[in-house]
Fold this sequence. Notes:
Blueprint: E1 16-18, E2 24-26, H1 30-49, H2 54-74, H3 94-108, E3 118-119, H4 124-147, H5 154-174, E4 182-183
Antiparallel strand pairs: 1-2, 3-4
Amino acid sequence: MVVLNKIYTKTGDHGETALGNGARVAKHALRVTTYGTSDELNSFVGVARLEAPAEMDAALARIQNDLFDLGADMCTPDMHKDAEREYPPLRMAPEQVTRLESEIDAMNAKLEPLRSFILPGGSALAAQLHVCRTVARRAERLAVELATVESVNPDAVKYLNRLSDWFFVAARIANNDGKDDVLWVPGANR
Length: 190
């Protein structure tokens, strides 16, 4: 259990922060930027929840919890040392990816196939979900970049990839099951 008696610690006053394994790194380190972006995404999900109907709100609540799991995973490097640790760190699991896939399939079954790219927008909820989608894509790009230089849980990367797809399909659901999607018209303003 986490106990936060004091919010400020002053330990980051010189531009460093602690990772889950206790190592101190620069606050601008790629690993910190990666899990910081998932935290940013979590905040945008919280904003989207303000507009979401009950069923989607429940799914977004699960996603917010998953994003904390993802942050815990990403803030603890050296996956190859997990078995040696007294308390194994929390890691994203394949089941979290599978759940997103099932939810995407269920939502997508309600939609007509796309015949055009769509512009982010439509309803307020759809617009917010598109912001979530693009921040999820940025988090995924950062995680993939991090994986080129450090160990990263492949399930964390898969989760971010599916999550951006989830937000895309959810945005279509929020646009009256795709009927109010804003279609891209190539070259419309030439």
